[in-house]
């Protein structure tokens, strides 16, 4: 909770800084793109535990608001809807859960995770020139849907409230090929564990500036 309060406080401070500037600019627009998401094992999962996460393709869509802090530096809060998740396998042979002689023996337990999230990235964009920029900033996330399927069936379950929030850090770069359009590549690393795992998401998105 302290981390979330600190991030929100930083955003408010930067917005106030912009409001007090004499030559500030504001833009807003929409964006959409693809995700390649996966998970990283948390600290409570032993390193020798035979679990492997594989990435999934998803998408994101939403809007952004740019506040000009200086000629080269802009604050860009975003509000996004994002579909992401991962697949993983556990080798039941390695951890000796099942008897290989059992007629119902399955050598691998496969799980597919699909999540829908509301994301609030708060990015700082630094423009190297008129075309290229780099961005960095924190991201808050809230899980609104969580679905899991295994080898046999699909099942939905409610995750604890403590597992619905996440905090991550974003790093990316962009290419502005016109005054209206920008394409960006971004990586998000979860710094808060959820259910003994951290998010790891690559995004490629297209932005359109409305104003």
Write a concise keyword list for the protein shown above.
eight-stranded antiparallel beta barrel; Porin; 9 strands; elongated
How would you describe this structure to a colleague?
The protein has 1 helix and 9 strands. The longest helix is centred in the first third of the chain and has 18 residues, at 2-19. The mean pLDDT is 81. The radius of gyration is 20 Å and the shape is elongated. Strands 1-2-3-4-5-7-8-9 form an 8-stranded antiparallel beta barrel. β4 and β5 (132-149) form a beta hairpin. It is 9% helix and 61% strand. It is mostly beta strands and 211 residues long. The protein has one domain: Porin. It has one helix at 2-19; strands at residues 26-41, 51-68, 73-91, 108-127, 132-149, 154-156, 165-176, 181-190, 197-209.
Please render the helix and strand layout as text.
Elements lengths: L1 H18 L6 E16 L9 E18 L4 E19 L16 E20 L4 E18 L4 E3 L8 E12 L4 E10 L6 E13 L2
Antiparallel strand pairs: 1-2, 1-9, 2-3, 3-4, 4-5, 5-6, 5-7, 7-8, 8-9
Task: Please summarize what this structure is.
The chain is mainly beta and 211 residues long.
Q: Beta-strand level of the residues, as a percent range? A: over 45%
Strand runs, count: 9
> Would you give the CATH topology?
Porin
Structural class per helix/strand content? mainly beta
Q: In which order are the strands of the major sheet placed?
A: 1-2-3-4-5-7-8-9
Average pLDDT score: 81
Which regions are unreliable across 5 or more consecutive residues at pLDDT < 50? Answer: none
Instruction: Kindly give the count of domains.
Output: 1
> What is the CATH C-level name?
Mainly Beta
């Amino acid at each position: 909770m302290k981390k979330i309060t600190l991030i929100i406080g930083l955003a408010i401070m930067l917005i106030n800084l912009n409001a007090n500037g004499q030559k500030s600019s504001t833009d807003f627009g929409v964006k959409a793109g693809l995700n390649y998401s996966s998970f990283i094992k948390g600290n409570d999962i032993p390193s020798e535990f035979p679990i492997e996460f594989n990435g999934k393709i998803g998408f994101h869509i939403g809007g952004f608001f740019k506040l000009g802090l200086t000629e080269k530096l802009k604050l860009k809060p975003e509000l996004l809807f994002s579909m992401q998740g991962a697949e993983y396998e556990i080798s039941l042979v390695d951890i000796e859960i099942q008897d290989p002689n059992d007629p119902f023996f399955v050598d691998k337990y496969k799980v597919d995770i699909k999540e829908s999230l509301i994301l609030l990235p708060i990015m700082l964009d630094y423009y190297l020139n008129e075309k290229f920029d780099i961005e960095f900033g924190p991201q808050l996330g809230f899980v609104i849907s969580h679905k899991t399927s295994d080898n046999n069936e699909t099942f939905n379950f409610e995750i604890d409230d403590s597992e619905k929030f996440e905090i991550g850090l974003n790093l990316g770069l962009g290419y502005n090929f016109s005054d209206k359009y920008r394409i960006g590549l971004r990586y998000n690393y979860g710094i808060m564990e959820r259910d003994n795992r951290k998010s790891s998401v690559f995004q490629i998105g297209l932005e359109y500036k409305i104003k």
